[in-house]
Amino acid sequence: MIHPSMPALEILGFVAAVLTTLCWLPQALRTLRTKDTKSLSLVTQSSLTLGVGLWLIYGILLGNLPLILANAVTFVLVVLILAMKLRYG
Amino acid sequence: MIHPSMPALEILGFVAAVLTTLCWLPQALRTLRTKDTKSLSLVTQSSLTLGVGLWLIYGILLGNLPLILANAVTFVLVVLILAMKLRYG
């Protein structure tokens, strides 16, 4: 959480992490609603999901809580988008 | 680069970074070829681009070369996808 004692650099990293994590929510909601995955690249979606999964394992092995939290949330969202891509083609 | 002296944890982080960076290449190529961006969420693509841009600035301010390289490459690819989304709708 942003707190008055946080230095500017930490806030910048926090905002970057929130953006690259929660940005997947509108895509997941849009795809849930439209069931349209035609323009999504399956290779992109698969390798993104695998990559985020590896970041999550990396965070767990390092015991780095921000890395774990950000990648756990991202992983749930990108897995959902990948599952819809596999389902709707 | 992967090198025999790299510990397993560093290799894991390296593979994760390569995947979450280069995964954007097939999406960019697919969209260049098909000009089809209908299923892509504009909010996702915009906030991803902004987030990656902030990660890049964060890496530059920290002087962290892997963070700079990964996010510079990612930024070029996601800006290209965002530009096509804005162009083709």
From TrEMBL, chains A, B:
| Pfam families noted in UniProt | PQ-loop
Q: How does it sit in the membrane?
A: Multi-pass membrane protein
Report the locations given in the UniProt record.
Membrane
Transmembrane ranges, per UniProt, are 6-28, 40-61, 67-86
Q: Which UniProt keywords apply?
A: Membrane, Transmembrane, Transmembrane helix
The parts of the chain that form a coiled coil are: none
Name it: SemiSWEET transporter
